[in-house]
Amino acid sequence: MSNQTTRKQIILGAHFPGVNNTTVWRNPASGSQIDFASFRHFAQTAERGKLDFLFLAEGLRLREQRGLIHDLDVVGRPDTFAVLAALSSVTTQLGLAGTINATFNEPYEVARQFATLDQLSGGRAAWNVVTSSDAFTGENFRRGGFLPHAQRYTRAREHVQTARELWDSWRSDAIVADKEAGQFLADGTAGAFAHDGEHFKISGRFNVPRSPQGHPVVFQAGDSSDGREFAAQSADAIFTRHGTLEEGVAFTRDVKARARRYGRDPDDLKVLPGVGFILGDTDQEAAEIAREVRFEQVSPQTAILLLEQVWNRDLSSYDPDGPLPAEDPDVESISIIQGRARQVDGILETARRYRRIAEEKNLSIRELIVEVTGRGLFVGSARTVADELDRFVLAGASDGFILVPHIVPFGLDGFVDQVVPLLQERGALREDYVPGATLRENLALPPAAPAAHWAARVRDNAEEVAS
Amino acid sequence: MSTNPPTLSRPSENIGLSVALDGAGWHPAAWREPAARPADLFSTAYWADLAAEAERGLLDFVTIEDSLGLQSDHFGGPPDSRTDQVRGRLDAALIAAALGPVTSSIGLVPTVTTTHTEPFHVSKSLATLDFVSHGRAGWRVQVSSKAHEAEHFGRRQIPAIGRNWESDDASRRVVRELFDEAADVIEAVRRLWDSWEDDAEIRDIATGRFIDRGKLHYIDFEGPAFSVKGPSITPRPPQGQPVVTALAHAQIPYELAARGADLVFVTPQTVDEVPGIIEQVRSAEASVARTGTPLLINADLLVVLDHTEQAARDRRHRLDDLAGSALQSDAAIIATTPERLAGLLIEWADAGLDGFRLRPAALPTDLVAITRGVVPHLQRAGAFRSGYSTTSLREHLGLPVAVNRYAAIA
Ligand SMILES: Cc1cc2nc3c(=O)[nH]c(=O)nc-3n(C[C@H](O)[C@H](O)[C@H](O)COP(=O)(O)O)c2cc1C
User: Fold this and answer.
1) I need a surface site. Which of A133, A241, A271, A378 has the fewest CB within 10 A?
2) If chain B, 410 residues long, is cut into consecutive pieces of 10 residues, what is the mean pLDDT of each piece?
């Protein structure tokens, strides 16, 4: 495998779909999304396939539509930290990435939980920092309320920065544990920290010793300019939705250029779109399965509900197999859906786009929703999917992928059995893990830079922009 | 003498027995014992070995200590600058979760602080511990009254509280507020555990509905410190209600336990104090108008165990010498043989206790002395199980099935 070192490696994560509208729960092969056995199988399959990490999303309030808890999709998920900690006991090399909101958590506790996870897993922890949260979600929390979009990111940025300061507060050689000499700590100030910023004024002693990775890997998910800037400043990797080649190339170029502006090596910011995949014995068979899956994901009732999210109106009287509503979306009223990140583009433009597509292709509501809501889907024989994934990475559309299967917990098995060997064959994926390697090492990221470096990059850049 | 509280389904000859795991053990010099593994304290392997040993001893559960601050010599005060004792610890809820898949019978009871955390997070964390352990989760509720821990969060200030807070009006008020808040946290967490009925997930293909939203409930908790809307994002855990425990030494904490816990850890210094403490717990139950199952009452004992009384005392003194001062504890400290400790537990149980949480002075030494010494003696006396015959922690303790408050209304 001489080309293994020279050719670009594909990073692969496996997304365990929790609450979502993509898992085909009607399929008899679909199992529990809650039982630990599901997580264990999924994680061990990912590890069998030598994947880099397992990924968990997060939602902190059950979605509602028209004021009712949404009941058509998979609902219910366990706590991220508890699942990942439990998985650390039944895996040895797989990275464990958890989405944790920066609004409804405090740096001291999040830093502590990730440092603990990193210790328990021997250096395999990653934090996907998200900010999406509004007053609706805030009703479940002490802090209550919500932060305006811009402030969410200033808080998130300071949150990550503060966590890095806490992770730095113990030197890696702080624990001596010399029984004879009676010396446990190298010095009596381990963990001392003080942070005085806009969002956090905190001080004291952090109580988790420095973890194997120093700083667990930091992911960002969020697409606005603020979000991209935050990733370029503060993250090791970006979780994105840009699943086509052209979008991927443009997005990757954009965020890597932003990283360079902060004095970073663009290779140190990994771009990872979330993508689905459908395998068949032939490309044609896969295409047929994909069509079936899409219609299973978008049931008649789901089609109406998804259209309502754009139209922002009660469309329950419409026929899913009929044409789009003649009336325009309601831009005045508050959102009909709560608990899901709001669409970025305006709903009027979206509705116009929907109308155009429906007209051109003569689509019913349900057919249209199937057409417009599918994203980042790799369909074909194992050979075709392997070729495509590799082509995307070699073309600079991403550094790898976060795979989102539509069946839990067995949806990854086919990929690992069929696609992974082909990727390994061409030297695009490791044959085996380096024993004891950390997630940071598996992702080819540099060792954790001190918090002060991250802060200085932001400061220097601000001065550059100002001058 | 007070009589035993009404016993539940737990066989009456069975003494409740658990251990409290903390770092290298409860003696500050424990980490210097020959068998200690001070360099491993932050690894899963260390905790997994301890849990496996406790499970070999058929214990009801292990508790895992935690706090939001660094260990310190100063009561309630800021951390010290000592370098000769264990400092630093991992998050107990995560340790417990990591132990879930590598143990099969023993209860897992992490300490989780209520003062600076979000009830919503606490609820799903413990519910998930119950999922990953198949019904073996518990919670040791802990209040943080420390001024310096509040500074780790920067959201509120807590005035310094001294050892004699009970006789100082201002301190009493602060403690009362913190414990009232803790009682609210327990209530919100319990409602969240019930906020999904057990059969809420229906996967009804005919209607396309994954859940029956009529079986999900808003909890609408409103208190002075916080409010929580609900429902939880995590379905109701296997036990319905994981077991809630609290350590208490005084009236206000007894009342917290009486309001929200299933089991209270108390700290009698001698067997003669047992009836009085039980009476205080029962009167706290009356004063908060507790309904349902009475609190299980377990005594905490810090133990140093060895082959002979003399050897145990010598070991204690050796550890004291290494530490530079005599061991102090809120719990009674007992240096003796496993056989004598077994006899003492039976005698104290006869005085009305449901069980004991033993705090091993040194790990794994004193834990092994419990599992391989004390337990066999209890078994021979017919006072302890010879194998796990129950599967959930609630069942181990003889607690009744947890009825879902929302389902009951429907
Ligand atoms: C690929 C992707 C995955 C996301 N996953 C989550 C998630 O699991 N939980 C969450 O609360 N928000 C999630 N978000 C929302 C983002 O955190 C972010 O708050 C949202 O996109 C709005 O920020 P923006 O305006 O920068 O895009 C995700 C976003 C993207 C693009």
Assistant:
1) A241
2) 40 83 98 97 98 98 96 83 96 98 98 95 98 98 92 89 84 93 98 97 94 97 96 98 97 97 98 98 98 96 98 98 95 98 96 97 98 97 95 97 84
Q: What is the pLDDT of residue A463?
A: 56
CA distance B113 to B410: 33
* Torsion sign across C-alpha atoms A114, A115, A120, A122: positive
Q: What burial class does residue B163 get, using C-beta atoms within 10 Å of its C-beta: 0-12 exposed, 13-18 middle, 19+ buried?
A: exposed
Nearest atom within ligand 1 for CA of residue A101: 11
ipTM of this complex: 0.96
The span from the CA of A7 to the CA of B253, in Å, is 63
pLDDT value for B1? 37
Which residues on chain A are in Cβ contact (under 8 Å) with B226?
141-142, 144
Is A192 exposed, middle or buried, given 0-12, 13-18 or 19+ CB atoms closer than 10 A? middle
Contacts 24+ apart (CB under 8 A), A340-349: A340/A63, A340/A309, A341/A132, A343/A309, A343/A310, A344/A223, A344/A224, A347/A310, A347/A311, A347/A312
Q: Which positions ≥6 away from A151 have C-beta within 8 Å?
A: none
Judging contacts by C-beta atoms under 8 Å, the chain B residues touching residue A76 are 196, 200-201, 211, 233-235
CA–CA separation, A462 and A5 (whole Å) = 37
Q: What is the pLDDT of residue A461?
A: 67
- Burial grade of A274 (CB within 10 A; 0-12, 13-18, 19 or more): buried
Residue A466 has pLDDT above 60, yes or no: no
| Cβ of A220 less than 6 Å from ligand 1 | no
Coil vs helix vs strand at B157: coil
Q: Quick one: tokens of A340?
A: 């899901």
Measured torsion, CA atoms of residues A95, A96, A100, A105, in degrees rounded to the nearest 10: -110
DSSP class of residue B199 equals T
A220-254: b (≥16 Cβ within 10 Å) or e: bbbbeebbbbbbbbbbbbbbbebbbeebbbebbee
pLDDT, tens digit (0-9, with 9 covering 90-100), for B315-344: 999 999 999 999 999 999 999 999 999 999
Specify the pLDDT at position B77.
75
- Contacting residues for A2 by C-beta, under 8 A, at least 6 apart: none
Structure tokens at B92: 């107990």
B404 C-alpha vs ligand 1 centroid, how far in Å? 34
| Alpha carbons A320 and A40: distance in angstroms, whole number | 38
Q: Which two tokens stand for residue B89?
A: 């610890």
Contacts of A60 in chain B (CB under 8 A): 120, 233
Q: Which of A59-63, A202-206, A265-269, B153-157 has the lowest mean pLDDT?
A: B153-157
| Nearest C-alpha in B relative to A113 | B91
Question: A152 pLDDT band (50/70/90 cuts)?
Answer: confident
Q: Write down the residue that tokens 């608990």 correspond to.
A: A339
Ligand 1 atom 13: the closest Cα is on which residue?
A130
Tally of CB atoms within 10 A around B401: 11
Residues shown for chain A = 467
Which token pair is A207?
Answer: 């109580």
Beta carbon of A287 within 6 Å of any ligand 1 atom: no
pLDDT value at position A32?
Answer: 96
CA–CA distance, A158 with A196 (Å, rounded to integer)? 10
One-letter amino acid at B326 equals A
SS3 content of chain A, % helix, strand, coil (to 5): 40, 15, 45
Cα A407 to Cα A33, A278, B212: the distances in Å are 10, 11, 21
Decide if pLDDT at A343 tops 80.
no
Contact B364, B53 (CB under 8 A): yes
Can you read off the two tokens belonging to residue A452?
């002060």
**Whole-angstrom Cα Rg for chain A:** 23
